[in-house]
Structure formats: structure tokens, C-alpha cells
């Protein structure tokens, strides 16, 4: 079974990315491993008194992101593809590569934005970094247009 890591950020391109990854998983008898990396500073805000930490904001955001991951996982399973998910706080590139190594992944599937001709904007800085540094093949799915 092909092990496919699919980082998701719940942006407008997530549906297109998920569609491409599910199609790839079906063609390769693959299992999708959805991963969402949330920033470590999600509960912090700056105000008159400087930086303040609001744990309830962080907890609520993580609960919402887990619900979104569960929903995506159910969509994948409903299409006949085995799927699990993982959420962690930290630096996205490092967490994704660590998770891919832990799962002995065959591929990482990332999306492109297609907003401009400039490479960093077109592909996305995280996708660019992973394609440059990952020892695991990175498949880039165009997530713009039809």
C-alpha cells in the first residue's frame, strides 16, 4: 500500500488538493495521511499590555481544526480510500517531514496556488521548501482554476 502524506491548511484550495490526492491514492492503492500543522503562537495576541496568551483561544482553534480534519477524513473514506489524520503545533516544514519519516511515506502531496508567474507565489513557499529539501518525492497538484 502506498503511503501518501497530505498536508492541509483548510484554505480555498483544500478541496482541489484533496480531490487530486484521493485520485492519486486510488491509482496507487494508497492510504492518505492528512496532516495539519498549526502555529505554536495561536493563542497569543498583542495589545496595550504587550503579548498576552489566551489558552481558551488556542483550545477552541485546535478543536475547530480537529473537526475540520475529521470531516476531511470522512470525505476521503467515503470515496473508498483508507485515511487517518494528525494535528500538531510547530513549524510546518519540520513537522511534515518528521511525520512523513515516521509513517515511512512514499509521497508527500502538496498544492500550488497559481496566483502569479513568480515561482514562490505560484508554487507556495512551503511547497517550494519541501520540494527542495524532502528526501521523499513531492507531488505538486495544481489547485487553481478548473
Automatic annotation (TrEMBL):
One of its GO terms (cellular component) is cytoplasm. Keywords: Cytoplasm. SUPFAM superfamilies: Adenine nucleotide alpha hydrolases-like (SSF52402). Its main location: cytoplasm. It is found in: Cytoplasm. Residues 2-142 form the UspA domain. InterPro entries: Rossmann-like_a/b/a_fold, Universal_stress_UspA, UspA. Pfam families: Usp. Belongs to the universal stress protein A family. This is Universal stress protein. It comes from Bergeyella porcorum.
